[in-house]
Every structure is written in C-alpha cells, then in structure tokens.
Amino acid sequence: MFSLRYAAAMSTKHIRTIADLVRFRASLKVECGDCGASRTLAGVEAAAMAGNCDLQRLGARLKCGRCGGRAGRLVILPPGG
Ligand SMILES: [Zn+2]
Fold this sequence. Notes:
Blueprint: H1 4-10, H2 18-24, E1 27-32, E2 38-42, H3 43-50, H4 55-61, E3 71-77
Antiparallel strand pairs: 1-2, 1-3
Helix pairs in contact: 2-3
The structure holds zinc ion (ZN).
C-alpha cells in the first residue's frame, strides 16, 4: 500500500552523477548563464560525452555552443518529462 519507495526512486534529488541519470533514465537540461540558450541531454548522451562524473563537475566543463559561456544552470528532468 505504501508507495514511498517508488516515489523516492522517481525523485531527482538522488541524481548527482551521470551514472544516476542513466540509471533513472532521466535527462539533463543545461542552460547557458550568459545568453540563455538551453540544451537537453539524455543520460546516455551525457555519459557518452563526459563519462561518469558528478553533475556539478559536468556543468563546470560544459560550454555554450552559441556564445561560449559557461553553463549557468543544470536542471534534472525526470523520465518522461
Ligand atoms: Zn550562451
């Protein structure tokens, strides 16, 4: 009757690394802090690009394709969202 465990599994709070993204089938939306351009990466795409690393570290490494600025914001998108 309790769905807590399922709800916890679906939460994006526990997603901290690229491996977590892949495991939860979540996506990562990256927004440029300078020009506002955004790009959404599936977990597997992020893994192919950067291997497994901390999402904060990935954010620091990503560069905007439009203006060359640093990624300003990372948003974890739950599966299907
Ligand atoms: Zn930009």
